[in-house]
Design brief:
The chain is of the alpha/beta class. Helices cover 36% and strands 18% of the residues.
C-alpha cells in the first residue's frame, strides 16, 4: 500500500496517480500563495482577504483571486458590486483597496447557485489564471475552496504555486481534514508555508482567555507533519463585523490586535519571498 496517499479519498488518488503535470505560472505575478482549509467554516476567506491587505500595507503589490467557485466570498468581504471589464482578450481585475481582485462572484448573481461539474470548474480556474490581466504583482493570494476536490487538484497540478497556508480551528473534526490537505499538497509537491490556528480563543469581559474550540490541536498537527506553526488568531467580533461591512479589519483598523497579527505574518512572508 502507498502510505503517501493514505488519508486521501479514492477519487483524489485516481486523479493524482502517476501523472506528470506542467505547472504554469500566473502571468503578471512573481509569487502565488494558496490559502487552503480542508474544512469549511474556519475563516479561510477572512484570512485570505486580511493577509492580502496586510501584504499591501507592507508595501507589496497584491492580487486576490477568489477561487472558491461554489461559495465566493470576495464580493461581500470587499463590498464589490460591479462586473469586471474586458480589454477584448482578457478580463481586467477590479481594483479595491489598491488590490487587484477577481472572483466568479463578480460574474454571477450572489443568490445564483454554481451547479458546475469538474470540467466547468477547471475551465473557470484556467480563465482566472491565464485570461486575466494581472499587472506587475509581487503576490497573488488565492482563496481556495475547502476540501481536496477538483479546484485544489487543478491548481496544484497545473498552476505554479509558490506556497500554501492551511487555516484551521483547533477542533478535532477540522484537524482530521487538515491532515488530508497536508498530504495532498505534499503529494503534489506544493510547499506548505505553515498552519494557522484561527478563532483559537477569545478574551471575555473578565479578561480571561477562553478556548471554546479546544486548544493546541493545530500546533500539534503542524509538529506531527514537520510543518511550521504560524500562530494563533483570536476570535474577535470586530473581525466579523468589518468583514460584513466590506472593509476587513486590517483595512478598517490596522491598530487592532488581530490586524497586527496579520501585519506581522505579512512581513514574514515578504521577507521570505522578496
Amino acid at each position: 500500500m502507498n502510505t503517501d496517499n493514505k488519508g486521501l479519498n479514492e477519487a483524489t488518488r485516481k486523479k493524482m496517480g502517476g501523472k506528470t503535470f506542467t505547472k504554469n505560472p500566473i502571468n503578471g505575478t512573481k509569487f502565488t500563495i494558496a490559502i487552503s482549509s480542508a474544512k469549511g467554516g474556519v475563516g479561510k476567506s477572512t484570512f485570505a482577504t486580511n493577509l492580502a491587505l496586510a501584504l499591501k500595507k507592507n508595501g507589496c503589490k497584491v492580487g486576490l483571486l477568489d477561487a472558491d467557485i461554489y461559495g465566493p466570498s470576495l464580493p461581500k468581504l470587499f463590498d464589490i458590486n460591479t462586473k469586471p471589464e474586458s480589454d477584448g482578450k482578457n478580463l481586467i481585475p477590479i481594483m479595491k483597496y489598491d488590490i487587484q481582485c477577481m472572483s466568479i462572484g463578480f460574474l454571477t448573481d450572489e443568490q445564483t447557485p454554481m451547479i458546475w461539474r469538474g470540467p466547468m470548474v477547471t475551465s473557470a480556474i484556467k480563465t482566472f489564471t491565464q485570461k486575466v490581466s494581472w499587472k506587475d504583482l509581487d503576490f497573488i493570494i488565492v482563496d481556495m475552496p475547502p476540501g481536496t476536490g477538483d479546484t485544489q487538484l487543478t491548481f496544484a497540478q497545473e498552476i505554479k504555486l509558490d506556497g500554501a497556508i492551511i487555516v484551521s480551528t483547533p477542533q478535532e473534526i477540522a484537524l482530521l481534514d487538515v491532515k488530508r490537505g497536508i498530504k495532498m499538497f505534499d503529494k503534489l509537491g506544493v510547499k506548505i508555508i505553515g498552519l494557522i490556528d484561527n478563532m483559537s480563543y477569545f478574551v471575555g469581559d473578565d479578561g480571561k482567555k477562553y478556548t471554546i474550540f479546544g486548544e493546541g490541536g493545530v500546533e500539534k498537527t503542524a509538529a506531527e507533519f514537520s510543518k511550521e506553526f504560524l500562530g494563533e488568531i483570536p476570535l474577535d467580533p470586530e473581525v466579523g463585523k468589518t468583514g460584513d461591512q466590506g472593509k476587513p479589519i486590517v483595512e478598517s483598523n490596522s491598530e487592532n490586535k488581530v490586524s497586527k497579527i496579520y501585519l506581522d505574518l505579512a512581513d514574514k512572508i515578504k521577507s521570505t519571498y522578496l
